[in-house]
Amino acid sequence: MLEMRPDCERCGKSLPADEGGAAICSFECTFCAQCAAHMDGICPNCSGILSFRPTRAPELLVKFPQSVVRQYKP
Q1: Domain locations in the chain as residue ranges
Q2: Per-10-residue mean pLDDT for the chain, 74 residues long?
Q3: How far is CA 5 from CA 39, 61, in A?
Q4: Run of H or E residues at 51
Q5: pTM here?
Q6: CA dist 60 to 3, 5, 7, 16, 41, Å?
Q7: Phi and psi dihedrals of 18, rounded to 5?
Q8: Running DSSP on this structure, what letter comes out for residue 49?
Q9: Where are the alpha helices (DSSP H) in the chain?
């Protein structure tokens, strides 16, 4: 199951799990769409391929909540 990290590692923008606009790699490095647009589809942390993260239905967030650990790395 995806960790659904709560923020962009590059700019710190909040990325709610039930909204679109997040890109992740296979290690779940997470970036907002605006930051990911400047990465040419490659994760700067691990060189993995970035893909858009699926959303999690609000009713499933009750049972499977989004991570609260922020990963922002200025």
Answers
A1: 1-55
A2: 95 96 97 96 97 96 95 84
A3: 19, 13
A4: strand 51-52
A5: 0.91
A6: 13, 15, 19, 13, 29
A7: -95, 10
A8: B
A9: 33-36, 58-63
**11, 25, 68, 36: CA torsion to nearest 10:** 20
> Cα(34)–Cα(41) distance, rounded to whole angstroms?
12
Four-way CATH pick for 1-55: 3.40.50, 3.30.40, 1.20.120, 1.10.10: 3.30.40
Residue 53: which of 63, 38, 43, 44 has the closest Cα?
43
The token pair that represents 38 in the structure block: 């400047």
